[in-house]
Amino acid sequence: MLQLLKNIILLGSCTCLLAITACDQNQNDDNGSSTSETSASSGEEVTVSGAPEVIGADDTSNGRLVQIATLNSPEANNEFTRNVQIMQARVREIANMNTLLGEEEDAAAKRAVENQIKELIRRVNEDNKKMADTYRYTLNRKYIRNIEQATVFIQLSDEDVAAVKKQAGEEGRELPPLLDSNLISVCTLNTADAVQGYQKDVARVQTVRDEAISLQAAVTASETSADKAYAQGKLDVVMDQLKALNVAMFDAYGFSINRNYTMQIDKSSLFVWASESELANVTE
Q1: Residue 114 has what pLDDT?
Q2: Dihedral of CA 90/96/97/98: which sign?
Q3: Is the distance from CB of 39 to CB of 48 less than 8 angstroms?
Q4: Among residues 256, 82, 258, 264, which one has the least CA distance to residue 176?
Q5: CA-to-CA distance for 89 and 170, rounded, in angstroms?
Q6: In the chain, which residues have pLDDT < 50?
Q7: Measured between alpha carbons, how far is 261 from 184 in angstroms, rounded to an integer?
Q8: Contact, 45 vs 175, CB < 8 A?
Q9: Which residues, other chains included, contact 209 with Cβ-Cβ below 8 Å and sequence gap of 6+?
Q10: What is the CA 262 to chain-centroid distance, rounded?
Q11: Which of 6, 59, 122, 260 could cross-link 155 (Cys pair, CB 3.0–4.6 Å)?
């Protein structure tokens, strides 16, 4: 059982991302990067809502959700994610620079920091305009991203990739997409409900796995045989739950929780909260 737990801890690290990064091979984490210059020419991959599509809600105290854009491909979703990450990184950098400015005592150093902050703000405003033009997205508004379609991939070792290529060659089949990135798809999630169900299942697995790790630490740290037996008993129960979840995940999604996996967003829609007065102005 201890070996199984170790395998789950070492191999089962989940990268279930609302914003896929593993499949975006051109992603640049450098905070100095600019949001993509091609984002405004995404064509049919990005659909900007002409008239606001309002989603009703029982509690309208915070306004209503308004759909502002739909990202119709993995590429469009990857690009949007990358651009948002760049902008958010810049905002964090501005906050850090402001902290540094408050701590700096040397006048010349203060001016240098102020100039850096001004440049960062200029670039954030510039990128914010690009995002608004392309997606109607702005850092000034809270948004909700509803994932409507997604594909789940497992990560393969180089040996796994070689085996898949060999089998495909022998059978005369095309190689799976993203195989060169050591990824292979195991299931598709074709509705928003399916995506949400998958995310809940993954969260449940992570919760139980974390509990198992905590209990294993308690077993190791036990100072008396009675304490160790008590912790071991609880660990045994949780490990049985984890085994059952592993079977359920394989039946539902075709992969074991002992494998690293990631979720690629294939289609998503962006919503913002709008007040009743804003909606009234739009419809007038």
Answers
A1: 93
A2: positive
A3: no
A4: 264
A5: 47
A6: 1-32, 36-43, 50-59, 284
A7: 9
A8: no
A9: 8, 9, 12, 242, 257
A10: 9
A11: 260
- pLDDT per residue over 195-206, tens digit each? 999 999 999 999
Total-model pTM: 0.70
Residue (of 122, 127, 147, 150) closest to 137 by Cα position: 127
Q: Which of 181, 177, 173 is nearest to 155 (CA)?
A: 181
For residue 153, CA distances in Å to 27, 182, 259 come to 18, 10, 10
Q: Which two tokens stand for residue 80?
A: 């949007």
Question: How many residues are there in the chain?
Answer: 284
Predicted local confidence at residue 47, as pLDDT: 61
